[in-house]
Amino acid sequence: MGVMFVNRHEELSALERWWRSDSPAAVVWGRRRVGKTALVQHFAADRRTVFHTGAGRPAGGELAQLSRQVHRVAPHQLRDLLARPYADWDDAFDGLAQLAADETLLVVLDEFPELTLTSPELPGVLRAFLDRAAGRTRLRLLLCGSAVRHMEALQEQRAPLYGRFGLSLQVHPFQPAEAALLLPRLSATDRATVYGLLGGMPLYLSWWDQDADLASNLLRLACRPGAPLLTEGQLVLATETERGEYPSAVLHAIAAGRTKHGEIKDALRAEPTRTLERLIALRLVERVVPVTDTERSRRVHYRVADNFLAFWLQVLARFRAEIERGLGEAILPVLLESLPELLGPRWEEMFRTHLRVLAAQGKFGDGIVAVGPWWSADGTVEIDAVALAGRARVPVLVGEAKWAARMDATRIIRALTAKVSAVPEADPATVRLVLCARERVDNVPPDVLAITAEDIMALAPRGT
User: Fold this and answer.
1) Given pLDDT bands bounded at 50, 70 and 90, which one contains residue 244?
2) Does residue 22 sit in helix, strand or coil?
3) Do 114 and 158 reside in the same domain of the chain?
4) DSSP run (H or E) holding 441
């Protein structure tokens, strides 16, 4: 089943701005499965385009395949590219520039790192071409790639292509309300459940059968030998964490509850700092401090930031070997019992994400500068969300989220108000309270904001 294209309005706007500019080259990058190719194909749909995907072939094979793609777009040119394909990358870029002498031509080189495996000289060749062809052709080059570190390195100061890109666009997984657009037939509560398990990767969301229940989907996607979600987690660990010394071990340690630097170090029996930095750059891990602290805070812990990876590490990996041996259907009830413990923290982050959206829209007044969790130094007081305002970073809002179908506001407000007094600079008399449950918050006073999955996973119009 193909992935329905939704949203990506900001990314498409950025590509359109590049297209209207004078820059001949752009780079689009992001993790596997995040939807880069779909984005670029959507952008290129009404444009004269050559689309070539690198596959790690020998250089001659890549050039022959590119020549065939060009022949399909321009079959009547003087040179027969089927009989005489491009001899090298210089020849290819010169030929493409000639095709774009009078009419703009978009050339997409997808999975660019795969091309450089067998043609390591390609970035230097491309730089020389861009320099000599400046102002002489209407060729536009769009480089795409999933090897995040490689795509970052292309743009670094010492790299041949440094300063040559008019657009550098990193594509990220969908946020909750964006992911909801791929699950229109589900209830808001079910959308929240699916997002909590799979995160914002469009492909994963497209695998979910909206006409089947949770158990049926997990049986098909996770509880059979070779099931898509079962194998995908291992693939993510193998391909997204190729850099760093102990990426898989660090992720497993965090997922097992060893969330402080010292705990991770003890689990690895090695220094994890460089690996943590790399995983944070990939947005697989998040460094979390109390929202009132600075980045230099010593009260740091780490969490697996990607919902699907958390699901795989905390739940599926535990049962993977026996599922592969055929016990998946028997394991399914145990797996389902494990989900509330996983989904609670994921729901809290969805709640904070929604508060940031509301703050950006001005729903809480001007000057909100941060929204995040808070906990006391001794760990006895924890608050799911605190919003700070102004240069003084004064707490103006506190919130509590429960992965429960319903919540009684009366009891929660009493406990939350008591917690507020522990937050530095917070005034319980003026701080606004926000409560969040999946389906309903009962007995809500007029001055308290209630949020449910209907708000967080609302189906926004596709054109907005």
Assistant:
1) low
2) coil
3) yes
4) strand 440-442
User: Is the pLDDT score of 173 beyond 90?
Assistant: yes
User: Is the predicted pLDDT of residue 256 greater than 50, yes or no?
Assistant: yes
Asked if residues 288 and 303 have their Cβ atoms less than 8 Å apart, the reply is yes
Rounded-to-integer distance, Cα 251 and Cα 264, Å: 9
301 beta partners = 288
Cβ atoms of residues 278 and 248 within 8 Å: no
Question: Does residue 290 contact residue 206 with C-beta atoms inside 8 Å?
Answer: no
The answer on pLDDT for 459 being more than 90 is: no
Domain hosting 284: range is: 176-344
- Domain shared by 322 and 364, yes or no: no
Q: Are residues 338 and 356 in the same domain?
A: no
Number of domains in the chain: 3
In a domain, 224, yes or no: yes
> Is 439 in contact with 453 (CB distance < 8 Å)?
yes
Q: Are 180 and 102 found together in one domain? A: no
Contact criterion met (CB below 8 Å) for 230 and 335: no
Same domain for 231 and 315?
yes
C-alpha span between 99 and 217 (Å, rounded):
49
Q: Render pLDDT for 340-399 as a digit per residue (tens, 0 to 9).
A: 999 999 999 999 999 999 999 999 988 999 999 999 999 899 999 999 999 999 999 999
* pTM: predicted TM-score of the whole model, two decimal places: 0.91
Nearest-CA neighbor of 168 among 178, 154, 181?
154
Tell me if residue 355 falls in helix, strand or coil. Answer: helix
Identify whether the C-beta of residue 253 lies closer than 8 Å to the C-beta of residue 269: no
Residues 354 and 339 in one domain: no
- Whole-angstrom CA distances from 18 to 131, 141, 169 are 18, 11, 10
* Of 289, 291, 261, nearest in space to 276 by CA: 261
Per-residue tokens: 421: 């007094």
Please tell me the predicted confidence (pLDDT) of residue 168. Answer: 96
What is the DSSP track for 221-270? HHSSTT-HHHHHHHHHHHHHT-SSSSHHHHHHHHHTT--SHHHHHHHHTS
Q: Collapsing DSSP states into helix, strand and coil, what is residue 442?
A: strand
In sequence order, the β-bridge partners of residue 143 are 27, 109
